Amino acid sequence: MAGTFTVGALALAAEGANAVGAVRLTLLPDVLEIELVRAAGFRSGFVPGSVAEAVEMRVPYTAIRGLVRRGRALCLALDPSIAAPYTRFTLARFTYDPREALARAYEARRRAALAVVMLPGPLGLLAALASPAPLVTGWLGRLAVGVVVATGGWLLLRELLRFATWGGPGSDRLAETFEVALCQRLGFVPVATAPFAPPPAPPVPEASLPAWARAPLLVALVAALSVLGISFFQRYGKPPEPAAVAPHVPLLVPGLGSAFPAPSPVDAPSGEQRLPRCVCARAASPLWNEGLPVLEVLLASRPEDGSGRVVPSERRGYDFDLSVVNNGGKQLRDVSVLVTFARRDDQNRRVGATDRGLYWGRPLAPGRAIKWHLKAPGTEMRIDPPRLGLLEAGREPASPDAFFELSRARQRVVRIHAAKMLAYHRDPRALDVLASLGPSSSDEESVLARITRAARPVVACDIKPTSAALDVCLFNDSLSPQRVVAARTVAERDAPSQRAALPVVVPVHDGVRVSVPLPPQPVPPELELELDPSP
């Protein structure tokens, strides 16, 4: 059945539990099915009762009263007025075959416990006797080697005993998957918090000076550094003064005897006046002005047109591909997306809702994508991705190399997203990716045009309204100065494009803040710049 998840586990005889043995848990769309494969009742201080085989019980998710972790075990509590006969389970050793796990768990734990008791001593004795004479000296050296080997063997075998008890990493992954899937059906997702770690102790300074002399020495050192810093910035931080030479006084070049007219401030182009400097990380664009999500959801119709829009057909409903991309710089674990399909009846009421849960249990690396193919009836849908926040909220994006690798994906909508993220990074390879896409359809022209404007060497950013104009930062990321002759707003559906002349030269790898004579209201989300094509 679509949307189901089945896992087996062992119910342990722990405090608070009332069932022991092997169980199989199935998450159905509406209820939780618990199959007692081989289980018995349990009460602390009493011998377990009769063993039940193949007993099935179904409880609605509203009957679940608790789902908590106790060490490496998962404790599940049910409402006793609804569930019967067992309501409290302490689950461990998750597997796909609970009957086999029950048969092998006792034998594996018995052997591991025997190894912990019997093997460390002989291993230490064998290591002490087999150690060569050049490495150890006398009986004390051999005794030290034996103790170290025995202790290390005991620690290793103890981990083996824990592995036999809890099932190892495979069981932990299944337990986490079951917990996440059940929490999604309960309407919440668990938040894992890092364990408390005490702050490291401050290093003990070497006392080379008496305590009374440290404070005056520190004050003198800070004062000297401050004076040196102020002198440096006064010497090299001020802009150079214009040459105090008359406009028409000839400038003699020694050795040539020829005279050349000295440059005049009047002859300097008007666009090369000194302007406030500024820096922008990326262009202002509707693609990311409101922020970029850490997990991006992309849709692709069949056949794909690159628009990212999906429209259901009248007879077959929805048939499309859903992809998610990790925009963040850290890998994501247990990615899940909930898609709800529905239709409207004659009274325009939403009926026939169907949920499709999409789950990816392996880590999703930065800048990587995964895809699902969905087919479902209905006339409308809703997508609920996990709420992981935005990149601008203190989260670093994936590297440009990761997104350039993503540009080789099979789906066109994913390659377009890779070009967008390269433009977000101000990586010049974004234009190469756009060129490799080939001709664009009418549905994707707007997005590709925005990516192209954001990926150009000279961009506008940090657009702020003033009383009668727009205060804009122009940034040049190329290897030569660029002359901007005009700026225009991008034509929208309700507003035409407006153009303003703007003669200004933007230095190499630098930015200048200018006032653009355009209406400040409404503030345009982006500006398109016109450059002087002449060298």
List the main descriptive attributes of the protein structure presented here.
single chain, 535 residues, alpha+beta, seven-stranded antiparallel sheet, three-stranded antiparallel sheet, 9 helices, 21 strands
**How many extended strands?**
21
- Gyration radius over CA: 35 Å
Q: How many individual helices? A: 9
Low-pLDDT stretches are: 191-199, 204-209, 239-272
Largest sheet: 7 strands, antiparallel
Strand content: 25-35%
Helix content: 25-40%
Compute the average pLDDT.
Answer: 78
Shape assignment: flat
Q: Could you state the order of secondary-structure elements as H and E?
A: EEEEEEEHHHHHEEEEEEEEHHHHEEEEEE
Strand order of the largest sheet: 4-3-2-1-7-6-5
- Termini Cα gap: 67 Å
Task: Give me the secondary-structure category.
Answer: alpha+beta
Keywords: Membrane, Transmembrane, Transmembrane helix
Transmembrane segments: 112-133, 139-157, 215-233
Task: Provide a compact summary of the structure.
This protein is of the alpha+beta class and about 525 residues long. Helices cover about 25% and strands about 30% of the residues.
